[in-house]
Amino acid sequence: MIAVLGLAAMAQDGKDIGRIVDILVDRNGRPRAAVIDVGGFLGMGNRKVAIDWSALRFDMGKAHATLDLNADRIKGAPAYDPGKPVEALGVPAPAPTTAKPPPPPSALAPAAPASPAPAAVPAQ
Amino acid sequence: MRGTEPGTPAAAPDQAGLRALDWLNFFVANLQTGFGPFIAVYLTTDKWTQGQIGVALSVGSAVGILGQVPAGLLVDALRQKRVAAAFALGGIAAAAGMLALWPARLPVLLAQVVHGFAGCVLYPAIAAITLNRVGRRAYAERLGRNARFAAMGNAAGAAVMGLIGSYLSSRTVFWFAAALCVPALAAVWGMPPRDPPHDPELAAAIEAPGDRRGPAWRVVLDRRVLAFALCIVCFHLANTAMLPVAAAEVTRQAGDAANLVIAAALVVPQLVVALLSPLVGRLAERRGRRLVLLAGFLALPVRGLLFATLASPALIVAVQVLDGVGGAVIGVLVPLVAADLTRGTGRFNLCMGTIGLAVGVGATLSTAIAGDLAGRFGSSIAFLALTLAGAVGVLTVALAMPETRPEAAAGALRRRWRPSPAE
């Protein structure tokens, strides 16, 4: 098992971005977000941001956690404020690759005999 | 350096003492930069929670503020100000060592208390040692030189501690800070005993024996001290939060270059202080304290407005030049005005402690209010609020601050002023 508090955090582009300083859990005790202290130099410019728990990767062999986000997005995330509702930055859902629904039959009817229109899957 | 003819016996032996004073200012600034930023990082890596770290930092801040006046009373009571400085340095070394060795709850809190109080003692003690060594006539200029060496110490400390913290560990930073107390102590102890001032009637009377020391309340409640303290509260109310809010914006927006920009924003003011401080001292002596204070305070609303309206990180570094202007003025004028106002009363350090209290109050309010505003309404609103505070500060200086330069000394200056030898 890995001790998480104080663990260094690295962005997916390999940049060192800060440390995990707190964990936010829901009422069932499941971790929902990590609070990470990012950026800063000699105590100036540090910001705390909340990152969705699903964006964190822990590896037993490494002395840091990896985030599935780029450093710029992490550093630019909304600031974490304990008094306000948490805006946790998460990994965006993958773009849908399934087909669009077929066009209504009426549009196809005049063209159908002339050229075999592709059935449902539009060319990517 | 005190207006004496070069070559007289009085001038020569003090060179060693003044060199030691240079290095004392350098090393003290150096080791103090090692503390603040690294405590939070160090305790985080030691698995302290944010709440616990907040408590430890608050204890340090509280002692640093509440201890100002008692420390001032204490240093006034000691005949040998060097003893006070030496004990303070020992305390800081002990606090650093304790942090490095044993980061448990109680030792860390104890270290914060010791460090906080030692800081309250050290700063006025150095100002008092300086006044004793050079006398009133050369005090302003010498304070400028002290501030120059302190700025170099801050810059060098930030660079070295930053490198140690990045490549080694925060614990090593505290060991290094403890080690820096050794050259600082050597500088204090290596100062040859002070020779009598050339002009006894213009020299400090701050080591007055107990019965000749004026009553403490008369100093603290002096209308001029209170006016100056109010100006200082306004200054720090405007100044303290400006760089942290700007730096957080840089982190948010500047991407890869953020750390470099912040480092530059920290170093540029120190360079400006190192360059300008002797000039500030000379101007304060020739043209008066009020004029110099006004110039320094004017930098605040200008800086606040520029921060509120500019977006580019590179321009932020340029605006930080104004931080250096303000810093140079405050660094020289606080001990100078304190010396002006406590002449003959033996209460110089109490006055310094009162002003130190004002610094702490202004700084704490600044961070709390601006942090809250930045969180709720964004950094532009926070900067505008700080600009307003700066404008109030300028008004306070213009309306309430008396001129404290002694007229008799000013008259003597007009007759006998000689430029100091090149530094």
Structure, described:
The complex is a heterodimer of chains A (124) and B (423). With 124 residues, chain A is mainly beta. Chain A has helices at residues 71-75, 105-108; strands at residues 8-10, 16-25, 31-38, 47-52, 56-57, 64-67. A 6-stranded mixed β-sheet of chain A has the order 4-3-2-1-6-5. Chain A has 2 helices and 6 strands; from the N terminus they run ββββββαα. Chain B has 423 residues and is mostly helical. Chain B folds into 2 domains: 15-192, Growth Hormone, Chain: A (Up-down Bundle); 215-414, Growth Hormone, Chain: A (Up-down Bundle). Chain B is built from 17 helices and no strands. Chain B has helices at 14-32, 36-45, 50-66, 68-77, 81-101, 105-134, 139-167, 170-189, 216-220, 223-239, 242-253, 258-287, 289-309, 313-341, 348-377, 379-400, 407-416. Chain A binds chain B through residues 3, 5-6, 15, 19, 21-22, 35, 37-47, 71-72, 75-76, 79, 81, and chain B through 33, 36-38, 40-41, 44-50, 158, 161-162, 165, 243-244, 247-248, 250-253, 255-256, 258-259, 262-263, 265-266, 375.
Write the layout of secondary structure elements.
The complex is a heterodimer of chains A (124) and B (423).
Chain A lengths: L7 E3 L5 E10 L5 E8 L8 E6 L3 E2 L6 E4 L3 H5 L29 H4 L16
Parallel strand pairs in A: 1-6
Antiparallel strand pairs in A: 1-2, 2-3, 3-4, 5-6
Chain B lengths: L13 H19 L3 H10 L4 H17 L1 H10 L3 H21 L3 H30 L4 H29 L2 H20 L26 H5 L2 H17 L2 H12 L4 H30 L1 H21 L3 H29 L6 H30 L1 H22 L6 H10 L7
Helix pairs in contact in B: 1-7, 1-8, 2-3, 2-8, 3-6, 3-15, 4-6, 4-15, 5-6, 5-8, 6-15, 7-8, 7-12, 7-14, 10-14, 10-15, 10-16, 11-12, 11-16, 12-13, 12-14, 13-14, 13-16, 14-15, 15-16
